[in-house]
Amino acid sequence: MKPVKVGLCGLGTVGSGTFNVMQRNASEITRRAGRPIMIEQVGARRDNPDCDTTAVLVSRDIFEVVNNPEIDIIVELIGGYDTAYELVMQAIANGKHVVTANKALIAVRGNEIFQAAREKGVVVAFEAAVAGGIPIIKSIREGLTANQINWLAGIINGTGNYILTHMRDEGRTFEDVLAEAQTLGYAEADPTFDVEGIDAAHKLTILASIAFGVPLQFDHVYTEGISRISAEDVAQADALGYAIKHLGIARRVANGLELRVHPTLIPKQRLLANVDGVKNAVMAHGDAVGPTLYYGAGAGSEPTASSVVADIVDVVREMGADVASRVPYLAFAEPNRDVEILPMEAIETAYYLRLVAVDRPGVLARVATILSEQGISIEAIIQKDANDADLVPIILLTHRTRESEMNEAIRQLEALADIAGDVMRIRVESLNDQ
Amino acid sequence: MKPVKVGLCGLGTVGSGTFNVMQRNASEITRRAGRPIMIEQVGARRDNPDCDTTAVLVSRDIFEVVNNPEIDIIVELIGGYDTAYELVMQAIANGKHVVTANKALIAVRGNEIFQAAREKGVVVAFEAAVAGGIPIIKSIREGLTANQINWLAGIINGTGNYILTHMRDEGRTFEDVLAEAQTLGYAEADPTFDVEGIDAAHKLTILASIAFGVPLQFDHVYTEGISRISAEDVAQADALGYAIKHLGIARRVANGLELRVHPTLIPKQRLLANVDGVKNAVMAHGDAVGPTLYYGAGAGSEPTASSVVADIVDVVREMGADVASRVPYLAFAEPNRDVEILPMEAIETAYYLRLVAVDRPGVLARVATILSEQGISIEAIIQKDANDADLVPIILLTHRTRESEMNEAIRQLEALADIAGDVMRIRVESLNDQ
Q: ACT domain: from which residue to which, for each copy (chains A, B) (predicted)?
């Protein structure tokens, strides 16, 4: 059978992994795909010493690859928004199928990309955009196709999970572990995308669309990072039987859809609570199947390449199928535009609060009264011994309540003369996996 | 688009779940599949009060369903070998696609079934045959298609996992928990298939074929059950930092393939060690992706139906693809018949041994000498206090060694005058998931 010809754009971390996996496992991949798949041309600004490209056409101009009429599938691994967008749109205009690992591009401009691809009848595949090597797009989009998804929750940023894991295991501060992660190459020099939750929000946007059949709506994701989490919060959570994880959560509720990224206390015995270091995991709960979980490497050269190459093989298969028989880009033939993404004020969850009070009689009663007046019921309250400055840390766990009521309670708490500084608030979710 | 017509054979636990999920989620399934899928006819010996079949043609003779020319896809959910085999082969002969949840049928007669299906150009799908609702076939067969799989290990029998979980959590005996599981409906009146590992061996046979591209070889799986595990073994393992899980393990080694089902000590911090109750999980380790894990309900009406319906949708899609573009039944276009399944004597693993010695001087030295003479090195040895009968339990952990050498050592240990009764041997695996 005639080989399928791939144009590989980008030869950085993921590009080099893709190149090497395709060379090393060529015979197994051919046996699985039923026909040979070869890299016809590589487009990269510079060579990568990890790849032996001597037998392959190499171009310094990625647009030469996109315009090469021999090529069937363009693999976009250059990252970023602008050039990547141009590249992908040109590939589609040229009638080529596209495989990409670019979560930002898909989350932010996916709707227009899929529209263009639909009009040209080409496939755009993006398994590697979410959770690296874990086949999470395929599992939700095809494996759980019988289900109405109730909710999903995932550790979908390895850097954040690395930092939280080491804060917990070693009692260290956020800043300290971040600096170490930067030295080890697990965090960027500018870590904003990872630690402030933007990268996780990109991925959650994609997961939610394929799970719930809604258009990509990155702008509607509530996004909160982990930079305010203190060593004390980690220790207090642990003492209460919880781990703090940075989660992306999407949940179907009666009046719409919750889409939120934030630090979350989850019970220690949950599998998700035991996903440590740079690893990723996504839990998806379907009405028929119940809870399911998918775990693996969320980033890295060859793990991400594993998903890129799986996509290439899927595209090769879809090339032999009529367009109506292909898996829709976002799982559903038509996205449902009538589902409201709820504002954060409308969601309901439980809360962990940590406040610092001046040590005088009645302070606990005043705190409890404010919560009670907002209809917030308390599950646990722990008052520590006063420190040298006569300040008393108070830790609270509440039952489920509405975020708007909690916002009002926190406003009133912070206005109390007894309370020093800001109230620390972390959301608490049960995420039952049994 | 013309609806695809399904014939559902069997209306028991999984059949009724399939019927109900397809009715309840019909609109979401249609939106995903891109065309309506309807149950045209049900074949079942009796009605199921959980299903409202009034709008559907019902036949008491499943072969009427298989011979109905209107039907595109036959769903075999009657279980067992003989009638199910006849049914599936007749469906294939009639040019119909087949979806089945029948692990025994696929593991034992899959090679002939796939051969017949290949000749007729029809699809046979069997996601529900392994690990219930977990999309494990799809994840390994398609999601990890870029990888050479190094090993996989799974908790793939919910009954066994339920028993071991309750033995550990409540310090109870095997017989005691089994009786409870039978009362609760988690175990059959004759529990042999589950507790002696035959069911797990069926599933491991299938997983190994799709992971390693070898023919189905149920007869070559080493199979050992959990009925000899005592409450003391569970407690000793726990004290040493291990959980005992009943695992199916397949591993590629230099000279062949290991295929084995047996109780296994694994470190407590592994995710697999924390998969409890009736839940299933499979860990698959690929050369590119590293360790990945898939978790969920391994049995039950609607979880299993989730996989059956996902298969139906996949078959609908494959109906629109040329035969060469379909995913091969066992992942590879042609299975590799040259890979040897190693006899159990040839595998290497670490071991937990529990022996009961007569309390007299030198017994520990004699035990250590026997192991040393077989080249077996000891990681830990624990001698307990003597009981009333002057018997001393000795617990040993060894480093990795060859099974044949361990067999010889156990033979010699049991021949010692100092040793009372049989030596209990449980294999120990690290199964690193980081």
A: 352-428
